[in-house]
Amino acid sequence: MGRIIRIIFYTIVVILTIVTVFWLATDVYGGAGFGLNFARVLTIIAALGVVISSVLYMVNSLKNAVKPLIGFGLILLVGVISFFVSPGEVLDEYIEFGIETVNQSKIVDVGIYLTLVLSAAAVVITLVSEGISLFKN
């Protein structure tokens, strides 16, 4: 299995290198947005890797798949609740950035609320786990 994954990895690297060189050679302004586009490609590849490895993990151990599914369900629940709680008002400043409808405003609010909730959860979990380990040892 390791050899197949290594072959797939190097094939992807070679294909991405060829596409990047071709893109930069044919577009005069291609280098201007190269960093941002490359970051987007890497983010998509990383997200696909996480999804694929998670699915493989869940398929291989169905008993241990409960915790990731609960986490996904909680994030989905926070997103749905924040969508319905958000006011969805569209101010003049929002229109400058392309947010023109109530649903677009609500989706932006969902992103902000999710960021706040996940950040607060990370801080609380870190403090609690460090506190437990402090008293445990």
Describe the structure.
This protein has five helices and no strands. It is an all-alpha fold and 137 residues long. It folds into two domains: 60 residues, no CATH class; 76 residues. α3 crosses α5. The relative contact order is 0.05.
What profile does the largest beta sheet have?
none
What share of residues are in beta strands?
under 5%
Tell me the distance between the termini.
41 Å
* Low-pLDDT residue spans: none
Portion of residues in helices?
over 70%
Structure class: mainly alpha
SSE arrangement, N to C = HHHHH
- What overall form do the CA principal axes indicate? extended
Query: What's the average pLDDT?
Result: 83
Radius of gyration: 21 Å
How many domains comprise the coordinates?
2
Write the layout of secondary structure elements.
Blueprint lengths: L1 H25 L7 H27 L5 H20 L6 H5 L5 H35 L1
Helix pairs in contact: 3-5
Any key phrases for this structure?
137 residues; mainly alpha; 2 domains; 5 helices
Short description:
This protein is mainly α and 137 residues long.
